[in-house]
Every structure is written in structure tokens, then in C-alpha cells.
């Protein structure tokens, strides 16, 4: 275990170190006080790119020093707060600071509690960020209400590549709200909704969304209550296959048919997929 003395030694090292890129503090009860010391040191660090605090007894009051660090540190790309049991107020404070950060690419918050206050702060962050690429909110018990609020932020986002919301009990209504926000999202290519008590009703909304979405290539749906065969999940999987095959390419207006056919053919050995794509773009037939 890292006690107060070693936390201070670690902080002193971080202030002057010019080589360390990744720091994971796992299963060490540095507590809120230790977190503040580490965060203050990172205000002076110019090399660290990834910080993970996992089960460190970092609880209420930790967001303020971490947030101040996000305003001053310009190299951190990944911030992971895993099973830290942050309060909703802490999450809201952290998001407020993160909105002003221009270097973070990934934020992970798991094992905390996302109520309406925290969800609104997360939605605001998602809505305003131009640099955040990956957001993981696994196991935060946000339920349907939280998912609906965050979906509103996703609807206006233009930067995210990955959104992970596993084990949040969002149910059908949460899935329906997210489906609406994903329909024409231009950058997301991976969404994980594993273990969210989604039934066929929510699954059908996601399938309808996928009819129009041409960027998503992966959607995690394990641990939900979807029909195993012949239901919404099969339709979703089919559209994901089409997106991976290049469905987005056939909607680009200024690509020459010969170039498009070559680009599609490079990654596609599946005759059914090629048949679908050619039906959508008949002028390709003469180029084969």
C-alpha cells in the first residue's frame, strides 16, 4: 500500500520526471488527500499521457483537485476513474472542468452514481467537446432517466468515436433515446450497451436507427433480453456488417465508380455484401 509518505515521494517525482507516460494507481487507498497531492503534482508535469485511479478510496471531494489539474496539464490524454465511488456532485464538477480541457481524448468513469445532476453535466461535456474521442460510463446505475439526458448530448456531439454505457439498467426507454441520437451521428463507430435490460422494443428502435446510420461498425448488446434469432439483433448485426463493408462509401457523391469499386472490393470477399452495395449503386456494375 502507498501511504502518505510514498504519495508525497511519488508526487515529487512526477513534478520533475520527463519520461513517464502512463501511471496506474490500483488498489491503493491514497484517499482524497493523496489524490489532491498527485493532482497538484501533475499540474507541473509535461509528459504523462494516461492516469488511472482504480479502487483508491478516492471519494467525495476528489473532483476539484483533479479538475484544476485538467486546466493546467496539457499532455494528459486518458483519465480513468475506476470504481472510485464518486458522488454525482463530484462528477458534475469534473465535467465542468473537462469542458475547458482541450487535450483529453478518453474519459472513463465506472462504479460511481450518475443521477440527473451528473447526467446533465456529462451531457453538457459531450455536447460541447471537440476533442473527446472515447467516453466509458460503465456500471454507474444511470438508468433510463440518465440515458435520456446523455442521449441529448450525444445528439449534438461531433467528436466521439466510442461510447460505452454497459451495465447501467437503461432499459427500453433509454435504448430508444440513444437510438434517436445515433441515427445520423457522423463519427461514432463503436457503442457498447451490454447488460442494460433492453428488450425487443428497445432493440427494434436500435435496428431502425441502423437503417440510416452508416458509421457504426460495432454495437455491444450481450446480456440484454433480445430475441436470439430472427429479431432486432439480427437486423442490427446485418447493418453493422454493411457499414464495415463500406456502406458509407456508396453515399459519397464525388467518388468515381472505378475508384469506389476498387475500395469496396479490397476489404470485401462476401458476395452477399457486394450484391447489396451494387444494388445501392447500380452504376458500379459496368466497372467490374
Could you characterize the architecture of this molecule?
The N and C termini lie far apart (65 Å). Helix 6 (143-155) runs parallel beside helix 7 (171-182). 38% of the residues are buried. The mean pLDDT is 88. The radius of gyration is 22 Å and the shape is elongated. The protein is built from eleven helices and eight strands. Strands 1-2-3-4-5-6-7-8 form an eight-stranded parallel beta sheet. It is 45% helix and 11% strand. The protein has two domains: 4-253, Ribonuclease Inhibitor (Leucine-rich repeat, LRR (right-handed beta-alpha superhelix)), CATH 3.80.10.10; 254-288. It is of the alpha/beta class and 288 residues long. Strand 5, helix 6 and strand 6 (162-164) form a beta-alpha-beta unit. One of its GO terms (molecular function) is small GTPase binding. It holds the Pfam family LRR_6. One of its GO terms (biological process) is nucleocytoplasmic transport. InterPro entries: Leu-rich_rpt, LRR_dom_sf, RanGap. Keywords: GTPase activation, Leucine-rich repeat, Repeat.
Topology:
Elements: H1 4-16, E1 22-26, H2 31-42, E2 50-54, H3 63-72, E3 78-82, H4 88-98, E4 106-110, H5 116-128, E5 134-136, H6 143-155, E6 162-164, H7 171-182, E7 190-192, H8 200-212, E8 218-220, H9 232-245, H10 257-266, H11 271-280
Helix pairs in contact: 1-2, 2-3, 3-4, 4-5, 5-6, 6-7, 7-8, 8-9
Concise synopsis of the structure shown:
Pfam families: LRR_6. One of its GO terms (molecular function) is GTPase activator activity. Helices cover 45% and strands 11% of the residues.
Amino acid at each position: 500500500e502507498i501511504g502518505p509518505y510514498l504519495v508525497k515521494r511519488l508526487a515529487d517525482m512526477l513534478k520533475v520526471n520527463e519520461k513517464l507516460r502512463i501511471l496506474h494507481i490500483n488498489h491503493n487507498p491514497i484517499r482524497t488527500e493523496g489524490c489532491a497531492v498527485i493532482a497538484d503534482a501533475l499540474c507541473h508535469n509535461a509528459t504523462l499521457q494516461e492516469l488511472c485511479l482504480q479502487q483508491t478510496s478516492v471519494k467525495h471531494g476528489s473532483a476539484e483537485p483533479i479538475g484544476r489539474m485538467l486546466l493546467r496539464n496539457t499532455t494528459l490524454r486518458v483519465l480513468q476513474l475506476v470504481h472510485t465511488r464518486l458522488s454525482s456532485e463530484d462528477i458534475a464538477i469534473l465535467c465542468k472542468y473537462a469542458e475547458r480541457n482541450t487535450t483529453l481524448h478518453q474519459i472513463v468513469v465506472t462504479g460511481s452514481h450518475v443521477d440527473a445532476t451528473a447526467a446533465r453535466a456529462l451531457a453538457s461535456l459531450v455536447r460541447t467537446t471537440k476533442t473527446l474521442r472515447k467516453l466509458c460510463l460503465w456500471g454507474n446505475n444511470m438508468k433510463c432517466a440518465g440515458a435520456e439526458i446523455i442521449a441529448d448530448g450525444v445528439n449534438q456531439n461531433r467528436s466521439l468515436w466510442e461510447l460505452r454505457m454497459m451495465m447501467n439498467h437503461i432499459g427500453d426507454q433509454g435504448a430508444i433515446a440513444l437510438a434517436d441520437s445515433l441515427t445520423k451521428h457522423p463519427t461514432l463507430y463503436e457503442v457498447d450497451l451490454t447488460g442494460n435490460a433492453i428488450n425487443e422494443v428497445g432493440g427494434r428502435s436500435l435496428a431502425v436507427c441502423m437503417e440510416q446510420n452508416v458509421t457504426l461498425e460495432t454495437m455491444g448488446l450481450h446480456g440484454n433480453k433480445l430475441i436470439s434469432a430472427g429479431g432486432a439483433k439480427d437486423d442490427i448485426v446485418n447493418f453493422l456488417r454493411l457499414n464495415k463493408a463500406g456502406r458509407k462509401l456508396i453515399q459519397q457523391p464525388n467518388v468515381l465508380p472505378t475508384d469506389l469499386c476498387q475500395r469496396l472490393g479490397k476489404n470485401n470477399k462476401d458476395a452477399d455484401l457486394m450484391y447489396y452495395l451494387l444494388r445501392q449503386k447500380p452504376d458500379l456494375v459496368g466497372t467490374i
